[in-house]
From TrEMBL:
PROSITE patterns: WD_REPEATS_2
Domain of life where this protein originates: Eukaryota
Keyword Cell membrane: no
WD repeat coordinates: 402-424, 649-682
UniProt keyword list: Coiled coil, WD repeat
Xref: SMART domains: WD40
Protein name as annotated: Cilia- and flagella-associated protein 57
Region annotation (Disordered) ranges: 1245-1270
Biased composition (Basic and acidic residues): 1259-1270
Length: 1333
């Protein structure tokens, strides 16, 4: 949705796709197509075609004629369409300042990509095509550079670009297509252009035929992966195979002009003389499985069929016509339809063609095998459309019709409810305006020289009257239909539609004139539009000078006038919700509401283009406007209800010439200069709408009159035609009866022949059945022998399998015992190793603790001794100083100098000690951080220990489950062995039963021999009965034919009797007339002359005229009656009494035979089922044993894998290391050790914090040592060296040797191939005063 903001006093316009906000209006149906678009019609599925019309892509169903719409507002100027090979995607090329290519999803009805190329200088694309894999789109640009662009549309990138204008001598390019299988091959044709390109490393290079400059090509299509067909402008089709020209097919027809000859250059190369005539241009090609269709010349499509001859590729078969050309079209060319696009449905059943005159035609694809085609003429896809723009349109109140007039000089009547075309009427003059009577039975058309009133009949228009108004630009019927208002320059003429006389000439608009050539004066400020009050009491006219005048229709006087407008080009009148007549007039983007001759409100709208037409829907409070850019503007009306935002809907490509709201205000019809007629559906009013009450009052009782006018001449002509057709039908019925009689005789003759042939075939089938019986007995014997052999072999195989299974089971049992013994040994070894490792660890820890206690004791004693010596030396030094001061002052200088030197030295030492203390402090802080990190590691190890314990528990559970499953499998195996034993016993019993059944079958065979003999006897009797039945059927058929012949004779006799009665009645009437005439003649017996004349008159009347020839040529009625009576006396003979008895005996014999056969088949099937069931059971048992073996192997493998993961088994050698219980015990002891060491660590840290002095700081150093153990592991020792520093006053500084405290943490690592069980390697220092637990 985009919004455009204009200057002051200008509203904003909102653009939508198809629906107004809230679903107020939506497109319902559209008549039209844009034939100038390249490939304008394509099939997307079996029954749906897509073509551009107006501002939409129309998806039209060719069977139900339903339509769906996809708005292409951004592609408002499409120049070419292309469908992908799988019909999943549609490519739409648009023109304009920024030409682009868009790819649409056909099923989803949405656009996927919008592609453009910055290297193009053209403003449009002429053709496009998809590659076979549908990943790339090739688009051919137009003049002047003719750039060929290859897009990777899924990524939205340009893959390759080729500028064809760089090749000299190339003309305009007409078509582009891709190879049906190779993504790298493209072909381009045009005027003096026929190029084949191959894609190589993102570059398009020419290959193949290089003589394309000799032809002006129009279209092309790939017939298969090897053949390319190219249509030229001289009525020929070039056939290229593997990139080389093979032949040139000429389209031949008597109505086509001869092709132009080509001149030869000096070098002997044929060059085109010029572009071919338009009547011979091949404009479209489409391929089907048996050949191709070629559109050549106006209204003609030629069908070419594949030839079996290698030298002759195709030959011309049929010609189809789009429509019959009128005589005027042959002279002026007007009305011809040059086909621009052909499309074939995927099933190759329907062909759809589009023409340059914006028409769509369809026809079934003709069969190449049919001797006679169903139709050689295309029919409109749905209706004949306007071939040019629509000039004017109008609708009525009584009928759901809309009338449109176009620049093609035709008037068309559309039914907007049923979406059909009712009437098309051509004119010899241009149409300027039209008006439809409210009843829908009359229409007024403004032509070049006159305004003509017509009756609208059901199939044509009939002229009613004419009003001498030249180029009437506006006319309108009154709401009641009694008056017609027409604009004549600056005047308005009122004409009565009842008396057909002029009522008033209304004046008021100024007539500014301008002189033209040949002394012709033309009015410039003429009336542009007309409207009526809803009650018909006044007519309103607006002129280009900006005046709007209302006239009284009764007196012809002006009621009011508004002259403050700059100009007026359109006017819309209606009845507002409050019952007042209101009008909307305007020019370009400014419009005004007028009520009662007063301007109520003004409004501007310039964003959607210049407004050229408007219409009101008063009940639904809606105003619809059409702009010069093809947009439909919608807003509320009256204008005080209107919003500042107009809803803009793209509807047409060019200007909208007329916007009409239907009488029931349920639809809006827009007509444009692009020739499209669009029907829009308005939403129904709800209870809260302001016009709901008015709609209920005004629209609920609207008349609906579907009748049309019919003239008496048309009715009489139709009646005569009906009588003629009835007479033809009677003749056809009589001829058909004769033909049926002859066919009946032929049928009876052929029936006898068929019966004889059938009897021979029955005998042959009996022989085949007997042979089949013998073959069946032979196959049964062979089957029994094969079954015995299979049973014998099966018993041997079963015994071998059982023996192998026992061996495998014994081996598995022994293997399992060994594994259990090994598992126990490994568990014992693991427990012993864990106990030894724990004992050794405890001893080492105790030794380390004892050493630490000794070191601490020694350091404490040294510290006390050093403190005592320092106190003693301090006391002695003070006494020495006093004695020295008292005794000698001479030595003071020496002492001072020496002390000064010592002081300097001590000061340097203090500075060094302070720097060392700072370094030690830093080391202490880092060691504290490391201790914290180690505490975190300890916590992680504790968590890991918990996870390992959970894993061990899970493994224990799995091992226990595996043990249970192994036990369960053992039970199953034992059960299977028992079932196998039972199966053997059953097999033995079955063998016994088999022997008994064999004996019974032998007995049955012995019993069947007499039955078979009886059966053969019965079969012979049945055969005799069938022969007798055949004879009986022949007798019955003969009797039936006699009955039919007698019934026909009776019917003929009845007809003859009725005819004789009618003839007798006619003769009696004639005799009565003769007697009456003779009685009249007796009155002139005394007048010889009159008597002579009377006798002559009687002779002429009855003898010479031949009316009553029956008097002297009377047939022999007695003989005819006697023949009829003799025919009626023939009776129908009764049927022979022996036939039922024969049928009864035959039925009894057939039942006996069927019973015996069923018994034999049943016994054989039972025996076969028993044997089959035994074989199946044996197979199932063997299969189950094999499944159990595989399961045992799988369980053993899983057990080995789990033991390797748990560390109980070496993955390389497969030997077990220790038992599972020993490993669990070791892990539990290690967890206890970790817990105890953690408690000692926390207590030691607490005591160290309490024992630190004011100036004392401690720094630790870490020393790592590791040595191997007896079990193969590694013991790591980490020693933390902590120096202790103490300082005195500034004057006396004493360096104390560092106190080293060593704390050892032992970590034992047990490693294996798949998993490591590791105890913490870094723990804080332990307090030596805490004894081990």
């Amino acid at each position: 949705m985009t919004t455009n903001t204009n200057t002051t006093n200008t509203t904003t316009t909102t653009t939508t796709n198809n629906k107004m906000g809230g679903g107020v209006i939506e497109a319902e149906y559209l008549w039209g197509v844009r034939g100038e678009v390249g490939g304008c019609v394509v099939h997307v599925d079996q029954n749906t075609v897509v073509y551009p019309a107006g501002a939409f892509l129309v998806l039209h169903n060719t069977t139900s004629h339903h339509q769906q719409f996809v708005s292409i507002a951004e592609e408002a100027m499409p120049t070419a369409l292309a469908i992908s090979p799988k019909r999943q995607y549609l490519c739409v090329c648009r023109g304009g300042e920024s030409p682009a290519v868009s790819v649409w999803d056909v099923e989803g009805r949405k656009r996927l990509r919008f592609l453009s190329c910055g290297e193009m200088t053209s403003d449009h694309y002429v053709s496009a095509a998809f590659t076979p894999d549908e990943k790339m789109v090739a688009a051919q640009g137009g003049a002047p550079d003719w750039t060929l662009v290859l897009f990777l549309w899924e990524k939205g990138k340009v893959f390759s670009v080729l500028r064809l204008s760089d090749t000299p001598g190339l003309g305009p390019v007409a078509s582009l297509t891709c190879h049906p299988e190779d993504n790298a091959i493209l072909s381009v044709v045009g005027e003096r252009v026929l190029k084949l390109f191959r894609l190589n490393d993102k570059l398009l290079k020419t290959w193949g035929y290089q003589g394309g400059h000799n032809y002006n090509s129009e279209c092309q299509v790939w017939a298969d992966q090897h053949t390319l067909l190219v249509g030229t402008d001289n009525g020929s089709v070039l056939v290229l195979e593997e990139g080389e020209l093979r032949t040139e097919l000429q389209v031949s027809h008597p109505q086509l002009p001869p092709s132009e000859k080509r001149a030869s250059s000096a070098k002997g190369v044929a060059v085109p003389v010029g572009s071919g005539p338009c009547h011979r241009r091949v404009t479209a090609l489409v391929v089907f499985s048996g050949g191709f269709l070629c559109a050549c010349g106006p209204d003609k499509v030629f069908v070419f069929q594949k030839s079996d001859d290698i030298n002759e590729h195709y030959f011309q078969r049929y010609m189809l016509r789009v429509c019959e050309a009128s005589p005027a079209a042959l002279v002026s060319g007007r009305g011809e339809h040059n086909i621009t696009a052909l499309t074939l449905c995927p099933a190759e059943k329907t062909v759809v063609a589009a023409t340059h005159t914006n028409q769509l035609f369809s026809n079934p694809l003709p069969s190449l095998d049919a001797a006679k085609l169903p139709s050689l003429m295309f029919s409109p896809l749905h209706a004949r459309l306007h071939e040019g723009g629509v000039v004017d349109a109008d609708t009525c109140l009584w009928k759901p019709v809309v009338v449109t007039g176009g620049t093609d000089r035709t008037l068309r009547v559309w039914d907007y409810q049923n979406h059909t075309l009712l009437l098309t009427h051509p004119f010899r003059e241009d149409i300027f305006s039209l008006a439809l009577h409210p009843t829908g039975l009359h229409v007024a058309v403004g032509l070049t020289d006159t305004l003509r009133l017509h009756h609208m009949l059901f199939d044509t228009l009939r002229v009613l009257s004419e009003v001498r108004i030249r180029r009437c630009c506006a006319c309108c019927y009154s709401p009641g239909g009694s008056t017609l208002a027409a604009a004549d320059g600056h005047l308005v003429i009122l004409t009565s539609t009842i008396t057909l006389k002029k009522l008033h000439t209304l004046k008021g608009h100024t007539a500014k004139v301008s002189k033209r050539s040949h002394s012709r004066v033309t009015c410039t400020d003429k009336v542009s539009d007309l409207g009526w009050y809803p009650d018909g009491s006044a007519v309103i006219g607006c002129a280009e000078d900006g005046t709007v005048i209302g006239w009284d229709t009764c007196h012809g006087q002006s009621l009011w006038q508004v002259t403050s407008l700059e100009s007026c080009k359109y006017l819309a009148a209606g009845l507002s919700l409050d019952g007042n007549a209101t009008q909307l007039v305007g020019h370009e983007g400014a419009f005004t509401e007028i009520t009662g001759g007063q301007m109520v409100q003004e409004m501007n709208c310039r964003s959607g283009g210049e407004v050229v037409s408007a219409s009101l829907s008063p009940v639904k409070t809606l105003v619809a406007m059409g702009t010069s850019t093809g947009h439909l503007l919608l807003n509320k009306f009256p204008l005080h209800m209107a919003t500042s935002t107009f809803t803009t809907i793209p509807a047409h490509v060019g200007p909208i010439s007329k916007v009409v709201v239907t009488g029931e205000e349920g639809r809006v019809v827009t007509c444009g200069r692009d020739g499209a007629v669009v029907v829009w559906r308005l939403a129904e009013l709800n209870d809260k709408s302001p016009g709901f009450l008015a709609a209920r009052e005004r629209l609920q009782d609207l008349p609906s009159v579907p009748e049309m006018l019919v003239s008496r001449e048309d009715l009489e002509r139709t009646r005569d035609r009906m009588e003629e057709l009835e007479q033809n039908v009677s003749y056809q019925v009589r001829d058909k009866e004769v033909h049926l009689g002859l066919q009946q005789q032929e049928f009876l003759a052929s029936k006898d022949a068929l019966l004889a042939r059938h009897q021979a075939e029955v005998d042959k089938l009996h022989q085949i059945i007997q042979e089949g019986e013998r073959e069946r007995e032979r196959l049964e014997a062979s089957h029994r022998e094969a079954l015995e052999q299979v049973n014998y072999e099966h018993q041997g195989v079963l015994a071998d399998h059982q023996q192998e299974l026992r061996k495998k089971l014994l081996y598995e049992y022994s293997k399992q015992d060994k594994l259990e013994t090994k598992l126990k040994e490994m568990q014992l070894n693991l427990d012993r190793q864990v106990a030894e490792a724990e004992h050794r660890t405890r001893e080492e820890l105790q030794q380390r603790l004892d050493q630490q206690d000794k070191v601490v004791t020694q350091l404490t004693a040294d510290l006390e001794k050093t403190t005592t010596e320092l106190e003693r030396e301090r006391t002695e030094g003070a006494e020495v100083l006093r004695l020295v001061e008292a005794s000698t002052e001479a030595e003071l200088g020496q002492v001072r100098s020496s002390l000064h030197a010592q002081l300097v030295e001590e000061h340097d030492n203090v500075i060094k000690l302070r720097s060392e203390r700072a370094a030690l402090r830093k080391n202490f802080v880092s060691m504290q951080r490391e201790c914290e990190q180690k505490e975190g590691e300890v916590r992680g190890l504790v968590e890991e220990r918990g996870r390992l314990q959970a894993t061990v528990k899970g493994l224990e559970r799995e091992v226990e489950a595996l043990r249970r499953e192994v036990n369960h499998r053992d039970d199953i195996i034992r059960e299977r062995e028992g079932s196998i034993t039972i199966s053997r016993e059953q097999v033995a019993e079955l063998e016994k039963q088999k022997f008994l059944l064999q004996h019974q079958m032998d007995l049955l065979r012995e019993e069947l021999h007499p039955l078979q003999a009886a059966l053969d006897l019965r079969a012979q009797q049945v055969k005799q009965l069938e022969e007798e039945m055949g004879e009986t059927r022949l007798v019955v058929g003969a009797r039936e034919r006699q009955v039919k012949e007698l019934s026909q004779k009776v019917a003929t006799a009845g007809k003859t009797g009725r005819h004789l009665e009618q003839r007798h009645h006619t003769l009696a009437t004639a005799l009565t007339r003769v007697l009456a005439d003779l009685a009249t003649t007796t009155h002139v017996l005394h007048h010889p002359k009159k008597l002579k004349d009377a006798v002559k008159a009687l002779n002429d009347k009855y003898i010479r005229s031949g009316r009553h020839k029956e008097f002297w040529t009377r047939p022999d009625l007695d003989k005819l009656a006697q023949g009829a009576s003799s025919d009626l006396e023939v009776g129908v003979m009764g049927e022979d009494t022996a036939v039922p008895e024969l049928l009864r005996q035959r039925e009894m014999l057939e039942r006996s035979v069927a019973t015996l056969r069923a018994q034999a088949v049943k016994q054989a099937a039972a025996h076969k089922d028993r044997v089959t069931s035994l074989v199946k059971e044996n197979r199932e048992l063997v299969g189950r044993v094999r499944v159990l073996e595989e399961r045992v192997w799988q369980l053993e493998g899983q057990t080995r894998q789990l033991e390797s993961v748990a560390g109980l088994r070496d993955p390389y050698s497969g030997k077990r290391r220790a038992s599972r219980d020993h490993l669990v015990q070791q892990l539990a002891q290690q967890a206890d050790t970790i817990t105890r060491l953690t408690r000692q660590l926390r207590l030691a840290q607490t005591q160290q914090r309490g024992g630190e002095g004011d100036g004392g700081e401690m720094t630790t150093k870490e020393v790592k040592e590791e040595y191997p153990t007896e079990e193969g592991g590694l013991v790591k020792e980490e020693k933390l060296v902590m120096p202790l520093e103490m300082s005195q006053d500034n004057t006396t500084t004493t360096t104390i040797t560092a106190i080293t405290t060593t704390m050892t943490v032992t970590t034992t690592t047990l490693s294996s191939k798949h998993q490591h069980i590791t105890l913490p390697s870094r723990l804080p220092a332990l307090d030596p005063r805490i004894p081990p637990q």
